Amino acid sequence: MSNRTMARQVLLFIWFLSLSSALGQVSYSIPEEMAKGSLVGNIAQDLGLDLKRLKSGKARIYTGDSAEYIELNKERGVLLIKERIDREALCGQTTPCALHFQIILENPMEFFSVTIEITDINDNTPSFKKSMIVFRISEAPAIDLDVGINGLQSYKLKSTDNFNLKFKNQPGDGKNVEMVLKKPLDREKQHDIKLVLTAIDGGDLQLSGSIEIHITVLDVNDNAPVFLQSVYKATVTENAPKYTVVSTVSATDPDEGINSKIVYSIANMHDDDQQLFGINQDTGQVTVVGIIDFENARNYEISVQASDHGGLTDSCKIIVDVIDINDNKPVINIMSKTNVIAENSASETVVTMINVQDHDSGENGEVHCSINENIPFTLRSTNANFFSLVTDGDLDRERESEYNISVTCADEGVPSLSSSVTLSLQISDVNDNAPVFDKSSYEASVQENNTPGLSIFTVRARDADFNQNARVSYILEDSSVNGVDHGGFTDSCKIIVDAIDINDNKPVINIMSKTNVIAENSASETVVTMINVQDLDSGENGKVKCSVNENIPFTLRSTNANFFSLVTDGDLDRERESEYNISVTCADEGVPSLSSSVTLSLQISDVNDNAPVFDKSSYEASVQENNTPGLSIFTVRARDADFNQNARVSYILEDSSVNGVPVSSLVSVSADSGVIHAVRSFDYEQIKDFQFRVKAQDGGSPPLSSNVSVKIMIQDQNDNAPQVLYPVQSGASVVAEIVPRSADVGYLVTKVVAVDVDSGQNAWLSYKLQKATDRALFEVGLQNGEIRTVRQVTDKDAVKQRLTVVVEDNGQPSRSATVNVNVAVADSFPEVLSEFTDFTHDKDYNDNLTFYLVLALAVVSFLFIVSIIAILSVKCYRWRRERMFYKSGANLPVIPYYPPLYADVGGTGTLQHVYNYEVCRTTDSRKSDLKYGRPCMRNFSFADHGPEMQRSGHFPRVF
Q1: Where along the sequence do coiled-coil regions lie (predicted)?
Q2: Closest by Cα among 683, 617, 693 to 657
Q3: What is the pTM of this model?
């Protein structure tokens, strides 16, 4: 516990000094630092109390929420030191320093106030906060201004208030004059001195010369800072936020320069308080740096020191008053607590004592208390902030045995703060009620043949009291019973007992005919068995009625006196209930009624009235292509609710065909298990899915059946490698693409066209350049297979370029195809021919190369001439036809042109659905054209083939 906290706890009780207790007050004075167990005073003697009263009243010390330094010895009636008491730690500088507590006694409730003054002893030596203090004092420098001129006789100094002249003879009749400081200089009064020194020679006609002397007085730190005020007063609200400005102090120093610079600091302040305030050493602004609590201290004295850089200081005092805010709820302390009070307690009986503390001040600390309404209790104010809870009406345990009394205390602050506690008070019983019987008279009957000691009936009297007071004893006297409680209160009642005949024979049930099995298709009212019932009693005791358990399709029919037939009373369904345990109960009409029961176990035999039912309305399964014949694909399952042979299900594959092929050649079904097997290996490219029906038939007579549709989907495998459509690979000729040397970056050389007959991911193709004569010149589009130039073609590039492109699908594992593309980098056809003569060909072809070249030139020349003639002939022919057409008006039919067509009929390949192209080439020529036509579908968009392809649609080819 900190010194500040202990001091606060003591200050909380200072207001007790002006109070008198409910019954008395005692004061003691003891020195601090007394040993534990030391005697403080004889409290029993001083209060005039007997030692027995201390014990019977459970005397105890109440200190609220502060520490207990004093203890009560009830055996001796004295107060003793319980804990070490340090006045400096307990009260600090507060005088007088005192402990305040109450001594509480119960039965009846009393309390006494005790004050113990703690006197100071000399147990602390003087101490400095610092082990060493250093002061810096500057020394004023001596002023020595020597002036001398050889041959001079005398000097005169004008304005000699501060200086005198001192003459000294020098060797050689010389004179030296010195200016000597006559009295101390004060820079703050005069910082600049002007003098005139006149030198006079010794001639007849005296001549003189003058010199003006300017003296600047240097500052020394001879002035201490001086505060504008010796005492500052300020206020601060408790719980003020950090860096709230408390006050600003100011000091002045008439020195100049570094000697006038002032530094402010807080000095000689308590360690705890030093954590609450801070000061700006340059501006003197004092601010809050900790948490200000009015309940810890209501004011603070802050000593502020102003120091210049020469070590001179001045100090002032700031008195800070803390303004209280309502930040503490009232604290309710139950000083003495009684859990039980007798119901016959008189009004104003003290139940408990309550002390309320509010650490705030003024109206914030003024407290008023109240309790819940409509209870026979009230609060009486016995002293300032002391209340006694007393009875305020009659108590009746039989009406209310317990009270939960809520005590609420609120202060007068704005906004008001409040606290509540709840006391649970039991009302102890007093024997103030007599027993009362439930009835004034009782009538009962006893059956014949009773056993001795038989309990006939019970009389009951109730006592509204509690526990021992409510215990009732019963005494039988003649024809009445008296009820007596332990307090001597009594009540009585009459008893009338009648003897009657008893029904002491149960009905006897005889099963005359018994059938254990009945078919589930039995008609209603079918007799199951006959029952005869006998009861040896007579009258009402011998009359019998029978019944069977409910919610079963059976009932009892009365055929004669005490004869019954058990018949069906509804439809039987073995699948819903295969067995019935029929309980037949027969009871007579005696009081009490006697009954007997028998249970018939009846089995329901099965009839084939349920067809098999498949688990699903349809089945779908998948199997990968290239499967092994006999592979188990999946299982169909049907269930039959019937029993035994009627529930035995067989599976049959219904006859059907798939694309003209019997379904039995594709799959088979196991008759017993319903497992469907593949009869052969499937090929996704031939058949993608097929459907058939499976029939489930039971073993009944006649048999019942049902069928279900089954769909098998073939899953594609990557079992087909990509096929290259273009360029066409031919071993008999060499095909080359011509690239002009003027081709720019991105020039479209050609496009590799490939397809994969697989589907989905297995048909996704990617193109990669595997090898090339110059890899830095060409690249292949990963997705579209376009071969383009990577850089500008130069004259240094070889004419003959050979590219190897790999086409790879996306299957797992992937498959690929390789195509070789020959590229000629040339601007003229002869250059191509000269370079491509060394391409590798068959041996026979190379041997006849010259022959073919000559033959080709001749054929080309011939064809050129023929073409010229043919063109001229056609022109003339068309001219004549047009003239005839206009003359006759006849319209000649137009024969359309249908180019070759390639289509991906599967719809899963890499080409567009419809794509046509036309190839014009000779058998072994060096040049041909590949012409791409337009798509046959409107929504077909051809891939981007570069500007040249888009412009003409033709690609030059060299063979």
Answers
A1: none
A2: 693
A3: 0.40
Domains along the sequence of the chain with CATH: 3-119 (2.60.40.60), 145-216 (2.60.40.60), 226-323 (2.60.40.60), 331-428 (2.60.40.60), 436-500 (2.60.40.60), 508-605 (2.60.40.60), 613-715 (2.60.40.60), 723-847+898-958 (2.60.40.60)
Q: How far apart are alpha carbons 293 and 488 in whole angstroms? A: 66
**Helix, strand, coil percentages in the chain from 3-state DSSP, rounded to 5:** 15, 40, 45
Which residues are CB-contacts of 279 (< 8 A; sequence separation ≥ 6)?
Answer: 264, 265, 266, 285, 286, 287, 304
Farthest CA pair distance, the chain:
192
Is the predicted pLDDT of residue 236 greater than 60, yes or no? yes
Do 398 and 354 touch, CB atoms closer than 8 A? Answer: no
- Which tens digits make up the pLDDT trace of 105-124? 877 778 788 899 989 887 77
Backbone angles phi, psi at 205, to 5 degrees: -95, 100
Which are the contacts of 191, defined by CB distance < 8 A and separation ≥ 6? 216, 217, 219
CB 807 within 8 A of CB 787: no
Q: Indicate the pairing of strand 78-81 with strand 39-41.
A: antiparallel
User: Is the sign of the CA dihedral 739, 743, 745, 750 positive or negative?
Assistant: negative
Q: Among the listed ranges 102-111, 247-256, 654-663, which one has the minimum average pLDDT value?
A: 102-111
Percent of the chain at pLDDT exceeding 70 = 82
Apex 503 CA angle, 501 and 505, nearest 5:
140
* Confidence category of residue 232, pLDDT binned at 50, 70, 90: very high
Closest C-alpha to 137, from 65, 224, 68, 61: 224
Higher pLDDT: 588 or 221? It is 588
Q: Which residues of 338-369 are buried (b: 16+ CB within 10 A; e: fewer)?
A: beebebebeeebbbbbbbbbbbbbeebbbbbb
Got the DSSP string for 6-75? Answer: HHHHHHTTGGGGG---SS-EEEEEEETTPPTT-EEE-HHHHHT--HHHHHHTT-EEE-TTS---EEEETT
pLDDT digits (tens, 9 = 90+) for 208-230: 788 888 887 776 777 889 999 99
- Torsion on CA atoms 895, 897, 902, 906, rounded to nearest 10: -40
- What confidence score (pLDDT) does residue 896 get? 36
